[in-house]
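Input (non-specific serine/threonine protein kinase):
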Amino acid sequence: MEQAKFLPGHLSPIYPLINLCFLLFSVLARESFGVDDPYFQACSVPDTCGDGQNISYPFYIPGNRKPYCGYPGFELSCNNNSQPTINISNTAYIVQKIFYRNQTLRVSNSAFSNTTIDCIPLTRNVSLPGVRFDLAPNQTRLFLLYNCNSSLLEHPSEFYRGCYEEKETRSVLALSEGDPKLRNASQACRSAVVAPVESYGANGDEIRGLLRRGFLLKWKATSCSICEQSGGFCGFNATTYNFRCLCPDRPHVWHCRPASVWSENSGYESCPPGNCGTGPNISYPFYVFGTGEDNCGLPGFGIGCNQSKPIYETSTGQYVIRDIFYENQTFRLVNGEFADGSCFARLHNFTFDRSSLQFTRNHADLLFFYHCNASFSIGYEKSVVACASNATLRSFVVLVNDVRHFNESTSDCEAFVAAPVELEGGYCNQTIGNVDYRKLLKNGFTLEWSGFDCVACQRSGGRCGYEKGDNVCYCHDRIHHSSCHEAPKLVHTRGIARFLEDVKKLRKTSNPSTFQSFLFSPIALQARETCNLQRIQSGTTPASRQRYKVQGQNPFTLKQPVF
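Output:
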């Protein structure tokens, strides 16, 4: 009777928690019919251009699917022949086949797709975005040389007809990168275009066929297999720049999880320090993808494991974590493409994806200029990068204090990349001539994070986590705000909202006995207690409120609880 008298006068927008309580008890009393998460639904059906190929993560067609169904930089379009195309170096390449299992795709320059012509059209160099694509193994580069002086060449009969009547392009010399005649030919020709192919033939017909058949690319994006095996669809969170597994209940970090009873101490149990096999222990604000709950670290601080190495991924590439210094909140990274000591044929720029990170005071930048022509000059001392140079185009590296202050022209080079490094003692009076840039790259650089202090929680025996936009401390008994020594926190509005989600899910998927057990679990009882406290605060007598004091404190004078 008291409950019936209370509810009608207080169910209003200014009492959102009471409204939630009313919804809570309504859910407990009736069948709940849930629907799949909208992100899961939006990405559940593969896209297509009409040629029979299914297009799914990491690829997507803007306008047909939501951007979160794919990975940044993997946008496809559909041409007039119902074929998917991808833009590489401002040129449309036809996607002939996508091999999702080994993360490769076969592409061909759309300029070579016309099978009715018997000439070689003019095209432009392929400059692969190294952060997203690499040439697959067993591919080679075919040099198409234009505007050549045939009198300087030993075998002018090797020229093939171009598709244009201009003097510079009406004949084309095609040589593979391993051809011994390439060096002399490049000096006798005024321009060259590099076209990747799978192999090289000896006659014009075969060359045109190779160009039409295209080449294989291997893409760099988080593997989707673990998510798919758990029943999810892969997606991407552009805000935190992280992979997400889109599941029927909600997006998860790595894979979908079966519905289970959620208890208050499950956060502590599921968030032990992680490890990839080598490297440092990984704990808050970092977490290891796939080894714990989504709430074991902060958004954007997920770490993947590759060949037992911890990998930190940004929007422009992957970096191996060499060490994490939790005391001063710093961690050391090494470019993943150079961590094994091999030639850095194509590095990538480093990008900050979150404002909570910054370089340390010993930061400097190595600037790499790739495939520059003979007229390239710069106002810094430079060094040749031999392993990234060829007979016609050279690559260079310089050392600067900060790439943000660099404003010289790079138009004489195909690509320009800035790689952060760390100089002992700082940048003062150091140039590329008195440092070993290879050693600097191997040593990596250090980043500092700010704003997350887990010391109080750890010293009290807890483990830090992240719940619904708040930092929390997971303890053996329950969730606290920042330390296990604090007074117990009561569930607030966000906690009840999450609890309601669990109730609906469990009501739909569990047998009656399991559901009944859940209703009498600690979290369910605490949710009910919170509703009762809110009612008392809203209009009962001081004597009634006295019954609900917690550990000698008035619960209504406690700080905003975090659950």
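DSSP finds 13 helices and 27 strands in the chain.
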